[in-house]
């Protein structure tokens, strides 16, 4: 799932990067991400708290991670995978996530 999003509002403007098919859940298994600013990226399962966060990213430097085990399975059907940041905004994020839908 490739994505290119801009987080424009801290804490209230997470952006969707994966919308599973109806009555399915995403299983996130890894990501490659680049930010245009120094920031930490928070991965959210729908509207609930973050399930994972990157370390502090260096601007314009790609970061990759494979989620251990069988990845992260969304808590509920139809939840969106969303990204938010913990720094000054706006922040442009590009990259891709991989996994499957169940």
- Write the element-wise H/E pattern from the N-terminal end onward: EEEEEEEEE
* Overall pLDDT confidence: 92
Q: What are the low-pLDDT stretches, counting only 5+ consecutive residues below 50?
A: none
Give the end-to-end Cα distance, rounded to a whole number of Å.
15 Å
**Number of contiguous helices:** 0
What proportion of the residues is helical, as a percent range?
under 10%
Keywords:
102 residues; mainly beta; 4-stranded antiparallel beta sheet; 9 strands
State the gist of this model.
The protein is an all-beta fold. Helices cover 0% and strands 50% of the residues.
Structure description:
- The chain has 102 residues and is mainly beta.
- Helix content is 0%, strand content 50%.
- The strands form 2 sheets. Strands 1, 3, 6, 7 and 9 form a 5-stranded antiparallel beta sheet that branches. Strands 2-8-4-5 form a 4-stranded antiparallel beta sheet, with no helix packed on it.
- It starts with a strand and ends with a strand.
- The model has no long low-confidence stretch (mean pLDDT 92).
Topology:
Elements: E1 2-7, E2 15-18, E3 26-35, E4 41-45, E5 50-53, E6 63-66, E7 72-73, E8 81-85, E9 91-101
Antiparallel strand pairs: 1-9, 2-8, 3-6, 3-7, 3-9, 4-5, 4-8
